[in-house]
Amino acid sequence: MTAIRLPQGLARRIPVRRILCLLPLALVLVVAVRHRSVLVEGFAHLATAQWPWLVAAVCATCLTWVAAAVTRQGSLIERLPALRLLATQFAAGAANHVLPTGLGASAVNLRFMTVCGVSLARSSAALALYLLAEAIARVGLLLVLLVTFPGALRLGALLPDGAATPLLIIVAAVVCVAVAVLLLVRRLRTAVFGFVRTALSEARSVHTRPTRVLALWGGSLAFPALQAAGLVMVGLALGLHVPVAHMVVAYLAATVAVALVPTPGGLGSVDAALVVALVAAGGPVAVATAVVLAYRIITLWLPLLPGALTLGALVRLKVI
Fold it and tell me: What is the pLDDT of residues 75-122, one digit of tens each?
């Protein structure tokens, strides 16, 4: 029998980069199908809202990508290409919603910095500094608002009776186990201490430049403030009768509470926490649920497809 030879083009392997370009779109489709009921209900609420407030919420959402880009630049001494950095933050948002919280955006930004010529160790240090600054700014802003508006949340409504003590025990146990593993495993200890030294060196270098300090901490404060502003504007659009400051506190408290929950983009966990926090701030359950659904449509679902397309384009252009 004569052997059948495949055409040379078919015999070649499919380029990995082409697969990576299409993967974000496939993940978006999967996530959209799984949450189609949320999409339908959320768009229904948007149809009944006051559009000027919704436009303002969209603008606030767009500014969050600018704030993220400014903060990323502030965490690194080298000057990054501004437009590509901004596009990367938009694309990172899509990656962040289909992977466990923070991993998608971190991977995209880590790749972007290494492509720009920053070593992996220093890129990782910059990433750690960004995450630390964002966490400090978010928690600090929440604490300041809680002190300024002590009645903003009925904290007893956020946790069931008797749930605080087991939660604290679990957190303490996890920390103790992590410390024990770090101390007992020599190779891990060496790697962690080496990374910490690099990160501290990078942080000192960044804080010797006033422009980087302003970008790092100003962007870190602006990012959660703009996110909270988006929620406030959606609340005003749907007639949620909760004071503006209380809505901001509710948003910050909910996002801080679910920061350690490894769900894709906080899907489900953030939504539930936001509803509970808005109710704890004094909002009716039905209206609070409608506000959260509409808010997630604006901040998550509307940018998801263009963000995935941008991510694929950046991969294809070898920007990341």
Answer: 999 999 999 999 999 999 888 776 665 678 888 999 999 999 999 889
- Give the total number of structural domains in the chain: 1
Owning domain of residue 236: 15-316
Q: Is the pLDDT of residue 7 over 80?
A: no
**Closest to 300 (Cα-Cα) out of 222, 219, 230:** 230
Phi, psi of 152 (to 5 degrees): -65, -35
Quick one: which of 159, 93, 142 has its CA closest to 247?
142
10 lies in a domain?
Answer: no
Q: Where are the alpha helices (DSSP H) in the chain?
A: 8-11, 16-34, 36-47, 51-74, 82-96, 103-115, 120-148, 164-184, 186-206, 210-237, 244-257, 269-280, 285-296, 302-316
* Domain assignment present for 5: no
Question: Inter-axis angle of helices 120-148 and 244-257, to 10 degrees?
Answer: 140
Residue 287 lies in a domain: yes
Q: Give the pLDDT confidence of 238-259 residue by residue, as tens digits.
A: 888 889 999 999 999 888 877 7
Q: Is residue 7 part of a domain?
A: no
Q: CB within 8 A of 80, min separation 6: which ones?
A: 72, 73, 112, 113, 116
